[in-house]
Amino acid sequence: MIADVSRSPTILVFDSGLGGLTVYREVVKARPDAAFVYVADDAFFPYGHHSEAAIIARVVPLVGELIAAHAPDLVVIACNTASTLVMAELRAAYQVPFVGTVPAIKPACAASKSRRVSVLGTRGTVRREYTRGLIRDFAQGCDVTLVGSADLASLAEAAFKGEAIADADIAAEIAPCFIAGETRTDTVVLACTHYPLLMERFAALAPWPVDWIDPAPAIARRSADLIRALPRGRAAPAARFLLTSGAAPAPALARALVPYFGEAVAA
Ligand code: DGL
Questions:
Q1: To test the ligand 1 pocket, which listed residue (16, 49, 77, 99) has its Cβ within 8 A of the most ligand atoms?
Q2: Domain residue ranges in the chain
Q3: What would the CATH number be for the domain defined by 105-214?
Q4: Fold match between 10-101+217-266 and 105-214?
Q5: Which of 8, 110, 133, 206 is deepest in the core (most CB within 10 A)?
Q6: Over the stretch 203-245, which tens digit does the pLDDT of each residue have?
Q7: Residue 135, C-beta contacts closer than 8 angstroms, at least 6 positions apart
Q8: Are the CB atoms for 95 and 104 separated by under 8 Å?
Q9: pTM for this one?
Q10: DSSP state of 114
Q11: 10-101+217-266 has which fold?
Q12: Strand partners, 143
């Protein structure tokens, strides 16, 4: 039998909601021939509001079901709140290769000139022992401020769907990242995949310019590396967008998704 070299690899991208789209768009650039399945766990969103035990109990079996349903060649967990908790369990439970998304503390601290770095994530992510460990191991002498936001992921989703979000609400969430002293913060880690959806607003509302570190390009490079050996498909199959609630995307969301998934998602 002749192997079907035209088959595209399948990449499953998983997040609690729409934030993983900021990772998805980079992985698509790195491997445009792949068949993508994007799954938003809207039925359990936001993860930042759940306990560690509840997230593990939710994500590990759910990802198993998704692997059984879609047979991916690679799974990208495009969520810091989940990745800082479940990667070891996922790797122990399932054979497929995984890429997680964790706060980019090492490159941020390596790049900071003022040696003052802030990490903006969900309350869950900044509480995690995993995140504290990254600071212990990779702060490289930088002063690192952890900023846990309760609502920014939900504000990002609302803005993505076209809802008007007041500047003051966004400014209040990012304000604790900006520390001025002898030196002032020059680098902010975007430690939640939802936040790059608001990048232009962050830059406009920041009290002074900083480097915002988005790990998505690095995650895309790692993803492409892990499936480098898989043959390139001849044509990119249509990407799919799925909600765990089983609902079809509401019209405003469907319109916002067209640049990512094409017109079919709005049909
Ligand atoms: N996108 C998720 C992350 O990267 C979190 C949003 C949520 O609270 O569900 O952390």
A1: 16
A2: 10-101+217-266, 105-214
A3: 3.40.50.1860
A4: yes
A5: 8
A6: 999 999 999 999 999 999 999 999 999 988 777 788 999 999 9
A7: 105, 119, 144, 146
A8: no
A9: 0.95
A10: S
A11: Rossmann fold (3.40.50)
A12: 116
Would you call 79 a catalytic residue per the annotation?
yes
Q: Ligand 1: which of 87, 193, 197, 198 to mutate, judged by most atoms within 8 Å of the beta carbon?
A: 193
pLDDT, one tens digit per residue, over 87-110 is 999 999 999 999 999 999 999 999
Nearest atom, ligand 1, residue 46 CA: 9
Spatial separation of the C-alpha atoms in residues 88 and 49, rounded to whole Å: 22
pLDDT of residue 116: 98
What residue has token string 């390596």? 110
Residue 131 is encoded by which pair of tokens?
A: 């995140």
Amino acid occupying residue 33? D
Q: For residue 199, what are its two tokens?
A: 């990048």
Give the helix, strand, coil percentages of the chain, each rounded to 5. 50, 15, 35
